[in-house]
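Thread: "does anyone have the structure for this chain?"

Original post by V.I.:
We have the sequence but no experimental structure in hand. Need at least a predicted one for the grant figures.
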Amino acid sequence: MSQSGRERLRSAAPYLVATAWMALGWAFLVRGVEHPGVAYRPWAFRTHAYSDLLAMTGDRYLHGGRPLPYVEDRIEYPVLLGAALWAPSFLPGGQIVHFTVSVVGLWLCLLAAIALLRRLPGASPWWLAGTPAIAYFGALNWDLIPIALLLAAVLAAERERPAAAGVLSALGVSAKLWPVALLPAAIGELAGRRRFGELARAGGAFLAVTLLVNLPVALAAPANWAWFWRFNGARSAENSVWEVVGVKDPAVLNVFAGAIVLAAAVAAAAMAYRSAPSSRARAVRLGTALVLVAWVATNKVWSPQYALYAFAAGALVAGPGWLFVALAGVSMVDHHLAFEVRSGRAIFWFFDGWYYAEELLRSAVYAAFAAWLVVQLRATGRSAGAAAREVAA
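Reply from O.Q.:
Generated one for you, tokens below.
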């Protein structure tokens, strides 16, 4: 093979590997169309092959109906994910077509995410492209949509396009809340440079797009639009470390988990604010990753596909190889244990012993990730003298 051929293959490799993982996940999950309706969830949990794409479309569109999201159908996700759930129902061919088209859309989001990472100097696309978590979770839910939007917002922010960053962040938040993780560090970095005009443009774009996407739905069906907030606010500890420590009251959990995420956001903003000129972009990425990892690790509800956000965070900051291996291993174990418990075959000692132990192991890996991020963030800081000179200037 010629030198140019090897270079093309090397350039295409992340996309090819990610495509292989995604195709493997589709092949494993698509078998669920043979068990439609009420039979799907027991089969899926028993075989460790569950996907919200199949479960939620089966609940709504299996017999040809297509209730209008939020107006006629209460959905526990933000508006853009409701649209992603609904749109394939117009295609002929039944559930297998709806599922396959949805997976193709998520695959395109994955390819876009890899392309965006390759345009971010110092990022590591292989953290996302190479993880087996794509096969396990890429088609479990619609998380690759907000992940792609988050990465696009990071790129826009680094290229000094504040309005575009605000628009992309708003779209990401309107799909799932996780992309809001960019905002604390980005705000801190702009404030540290006294770029208040850019901050205003980014904030105005974020607010305008959030209202444009959400306000029509909120006005047309306020109770159903707000169901996302009520549903998640009332949830207790599910498959998270909070079960191990015995905290299950939703109100208490909301305060504890919210306080941890808020602390991570304040730390990200503060350290991005004081970052050295040569490290500002990295400080924003590290701060974004810190909020994501803290949020995922301490969320009162744990779903296995949340691991995708950790891999996106690791890709943004080019995390160390040992951390990639640890996250990949724990995410695969987490998948099988979670669905073994839900299958109904598990007995109490299994749940209380092995699954609780795995929750602690998972939390330890995420804590190690967060600690690494804090150390890296501290290294981006200016000296006291340099900070004083910048302020004086």
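V.I.: this helps a lot. Residues 387-393 have pLDDT under 50 and may be disordered.
O.Q.: and The first helix runs from residue 3 to 29.
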